[in-house]
Amino acid sequence: MPIKPIASLVTGLPTQDGNRVPLTRLVPGQGQHGAEAFRAMDPFLLMDHFGPMVLPPGTDAGFPPHPHRGFQTLTYLIQGAFRHRDSTGGSGLLRPGGAQLMNAGAGIVHEEMPVPEHLETGGPIEGVQLWINLPKSKKWTAPGYTDLQPESMPWQVLPRGRIRALAGTWVGTTGPAQTPVKIAYAHLELESGARFEHALPAEWTTAVVPLHGSIRIQGTAVPADTVALLGLGDAIGLEATSSVSLMLLAGEPIGEPIAHYGPFVMNTSEEIEQAILDFQRGRMGHLD
Taking the model in full, what pTM does it have? Predict the structure, then answer.
């Protein structure tokens, strides 16, 4: 089957967010503006690789209360632990290998902070957060969380590697994340020299993102913390040039106008202004 070629390579942007959490902003990456990335990565809005870092004892590094409206977040934890709370009353513990799917919908306030043990003793933490746009018809849905425990996303053994399906179907296993927009999302680990190929719809936005190590796609090297946006073809095809950990990402484009301001993603500037006003007036709820 025809392999999707590389359409562009975008290097991630090292930065910080929340309370001094070091991360690499993969989408939008270096040299990209929001509108440019939105068009190229539709239906995906943002992708952050946070950590890896070791939290020192007494740290408050994390993501204190902040609002969202108009999209979903899928936070996947590779190591460490986070606790989350939100203005709908939802709360839970994010463990290594687990994820949380948050529907911001009509509006939510939430926080993601280290667990109490990390506040006392410190510890390692690493993960990936993906923002998934919602179509206009779904932007006003009720907000809420879905916890995706590690047991619901077990590793599947591959020749010289393994894969964890978060959303969509990969090598016969379907991930538990259910989103209004059709997506496929997985964490893949390969030994050096291993190859991987998997069919995906030709028209879907597709990207391969090494977190550690490097790969080669049709002769082109893709280093860590780089987004390889792929072109038309019927499958992903890649070779590990070192031991590698990477995210596989594909989704059906929405093709609607996007208005964006900070934590709000809507279709018009008027809806953004309303989101700001609603947050300021407490209409998205509060965290005590």
Answer: 0.95
